[in-house]
Structure prediction request, 275 residues.
Amino acid sequence: MDSDKKGYQKQLFNERQKEKIKMGRTINKETIALIKKFEGCRLTSYQDPVGVWTIGYGHTAGVKRGMKITQAQAEKYLTEDLKKYSAYVDRYVTTFTPNDNQYGALTSFCYNCGAGSLKTLVTGRNAETISEKILLYNKAGGKVLNGLTKRRVAERELFNKSISGSTGKKFSQYSHMQFVKEVQKAIGAKVDGIAGNETLSKTVTVSKTKNNKHAVVKPIQKYLNSIGYNCGAVDGIAGTKFDSSVKAFQKANGCIADGEITAKNRTWKKLLKIA
Prediction:
């Protein structure tokens, strides 16, 4: 019996190790501040809006009625929970590589809504769509809660917030209108930020083998990066990463995924948001 018991315990341990969540990457201070603001810190256990016993900064694992902790324990629980929930971001976000603010915003979302909601939010979606859909998760028990609405707005703002690059320079948020204007300038169209048939008629075919150093490549790279398709460095050269990100964009938008941006295959229309 002893050997059987040891064998079972070893098997159970191995299974648990396989299921163990890989710890996520470092969470930035903006994310920690956001979570602390909305979770608050309570050193005596309480029930959240849906009846779950909670303590510290929204910690729920093993919490019971009447439980008390110190501030140091609350900070420790927060650190452990951040590692756990950020690991789900690593697991489920596969369509693009999130920057630190995007990563933090999704970690906060998972911290509050759970891994299942995170998986639903991000699966098969690019950054732009996630930014739009995150606001929908503002209900608890079927009711819209003001606190959740405010938190989703804050998470979205963090998700879309500009970040500092390795050079220390700040990258500004690249809007669609900026993209359209830069495209119009590059192709010699009227620069008004409004994409229509006139703009479309002047577009050129762009791929890693056609017009791969055209002036329009840079704005395409910036725009694809801004909406979550990792296009690599904005160097004005349509190379391998450019090709991969274009194909991913095409696939997500119902275009022929051939890596060529043309008016004929509707990719320019999708990029310029022309109906």
Q: What stands out?
A: The longest strand covers residues 42-47. The chain has a mean pLDDT of 86. The CA atoms of residues 213 and 237 lie 5 Å apart.
